[in-house]
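Please, structure for the following, as tokens.
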Amino acid sequence: MVEWSIHYYPDGKAVADDQVTVGIWYYDEEDDFDEEAAYFQDVDNYYLSKNGESDDYLIPPHGKLMTQGFHSFDHPVRLDSWQPHMHLRGVAMSMEIFYPATGRTELVSKVSNWSAGWNHSHTYEEGFQPLVPVGAIIILTGWHDNTADNPWNPDPDQWVTSGQRTGDEMSHAWIAVTHLDEEGYQKLQAERKDSEARTVAILGKVEPND
């Protein structure tokens, strides 16, 4: 099933109707079986909210707002891609992983200078997708700017609420996730360590220039 949602916003400029395209890649049944395909993969919507309480928020005129969302799984996962989604007052979003066992927080991705004109899906390179163990917490943080300093802001004198209209605000992220079991997680971890060790060994053989 393919499902999508399109947002339009009148800006006084005439444009053609064919502004949206979708591409689907088909693979031959004879292609080699991919072990990782045995794990369930999905793309879902992960919400951010004000103070972790509710998705219903107001941004006052000439004001700013930070939203956050906390998400965890009862099984290990691999993050394959990340797409922040906000509207005209959105200016930045980050994704971190908090590891309760060590107290360490790792910054995975951050989009500064975010633009409502470009909703990019950031796909992680093969072999470098973030691996999230059981118990770790994904922290999503978004920043909104309803002041005149925000060049995308159509009217800083307005109260801005959450909603579907482009003039309203949203704060969530679409994340593609591969749902692993412990065996699959440990296998990917071992492959990463082996790849890092081989890279260090190769670099160690490179002699510095005279």
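The mean pLDDT is 86. The longest helix spans residues 182-205.
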